[in-house]
Design goal:
The protein has 15 helices and 13 strands. β1 and β2 form a beta hairpin. It is globular and about 65 Å long. About 16% of the residues have low confidence. The structure holds zinc ion (ZN).
Length: 399
């Protein structure tokens, strides 16, 4: 092994001849092939991988994974790698290698069997898309039981590490396929530590980066949801119908509002500076919080969808007020009851994905009983009231 490489490996406390040592050696060869500075690249990768000491088997998995990616021609040529590096100027080596796995994730390794059950239909051409997964149960996402995940958390790393599920480690997150996907390539991105669902600027910036690295996918932050006990975002492949709506700029703020013809009220923050974008989104979130959040109890009254257009990051912010936590299930049941008589299995969850034009159902046979008008009604009901919306808009103009 190269002298410099040996120094790096011993700096990280890796024993000569160990499995990690052997992998580091192989990786340094790959880095050289890619014209990267092997000692620097290896140092970077080991620093990220060894951070917060995960189990040795995890480290081995991550390095094997990195090696697989670096050596797999399907992941891209050297030119692709450099192209990615230019786009991702500020990204770490781990990010770059991660970016190269995108086709692998999308095409092969997400839980293929459950994805095969997912079907899709267009409810109203160009407006909304409904996906069907018969394995998914309606009640699981509409009940907000605070004790639901006291004993076990279904998205904690520990809960699936002993399964066959493929898991990727990236920055401070784990990525894996959703166990009951409602669309193709339904990804979960969970924070490494168990803790309440929340959004802050660092998390937002990471998710903006993720969106740029995985240009095929759209991460979204969902509250309320059935997984409020653990910080996470989900991601869908493809684009959201909401990305095509007309918007009206609010001065020179970088923020636009949805065209009034769209059934939901909301904002889109755009820009090529992720810090500025996350600052503005944060401002809107604060404004949401400053209004009626106490009445909403634990629910945060906004949803975020991370999109992009070329080099421009676009974050859709969908503020919501109307359904308070105590009346939430009641209202929901009332709405569902209306359709229950017809055995409708449509999942009535006023979540970001629905508002953005993607819904889900567990039974495609009842699909036709939901009309476009039903959908608009639901979205209007859960969207921010106009006076609250105007308040935020006026505050944004002061920026
Ligand atoms: Zn957890």
């Amino acid at each position: 092994m190269d002298k410099q490489i040996i120094e790096i490996v011993s700096k990280h406390g890796i024993k000569t001849g160990s499995k990690i040592y052997q992998l580091a050696e192989k990786l340094s060869v790959k880095f050289n092939e890619f014209n990267l500075s092997a000692p620097k690249a290896l140092d970077n990768l080991l620093t990220v991988t060894l951070k917060d000491t995960i189990e040795e088997s995890d480290i081995v998995n991550n390095l094997e994974f990195a090696l697989e990616m670096a050596g797999n021609p399907a992941m891209g040529t050297k030119d692709d790698l450099f192209k990615t590096r230019i786009i991702a100027d500020n990204f770490s080596l781990q990010d770059i290698m991660f970016a190269l796995i995108r086709h692998q994730i999308i095409e092969k390794k997400i839980d293929g069997e459950s994805l095969a059950k997912v079907q899709s239909k267009v409810l109203s051409p160009g407006d909304f898309v409904i996906y069907c997964n018969s394995a998914r149960k309606r009640s699981s996402t509409v009940v907000h039981n605070k004790n639901e995940y006291v004993d076990s958390c279904p998205i904690c790393y520990q809960s699936f590490i002993n399964t066959n599920k493929k898991v990727w480690f990236w920055r401070d997150y784990y990525l894996f396929g959703n166990h009951a996907p409602i669309v193709e390539n339904h990804l979960m991105v969970t924070y490494k530590k168990h803790g309440l669902q929340s959004m802050d600027r660092q998390f937002m910036e990471d998710i903006i980066d993720l969106n740029f690295m995985f240009d095929f996918c759209r991460p979204y932050f969902n509250r309320p949801g059935s997984l409020d006990k653990h910080r996470h975002v989900q991601a869908f492949s493809g684009t959201f119908p909401i990305e095509n709506i007309k918007t009206v700029a609010i001065g020179n703020t970088g923020v636009s509002e949805f065209d009034p013809s769209y059934p939901a009220t909301g904002f889109v923050v755009e820009g090529n500076d992720k810090k500025r974008v996350s600052l503005l989104v944060n401002k809107i979130m604060e404004l949401c919080d400053s209004r009626q959040v106490k009445e909403i109890d634990r629910f945060v009254p906004f949803y975020l969808i991370f999109a992009r257009k070329g080099d421009i990051a676009r974050v859709f912010v969908l503020p919501k007020w109307k359904w308070k936590s105590d009346t939430f299930p009641k209202d929901m049941n009332a709405y569902n009851a209306k359709n229950e008589s017809e055995k409708n299995e449509f999942i009535i969850v006023p979540a970001s994905v629905e508002t953005a034009g993607r819904g889900s159902t567990s039974d495609l046979s009842t699909f036709k009983r939901i009309t476009y008008a039903d959908y608009c009604h639901l979205i209007k009901d859960t969207s921010a009231p106009l006076e609250e919306f105007k308040f935020i808009r006026d505050e944004l103009k002061k920026i």
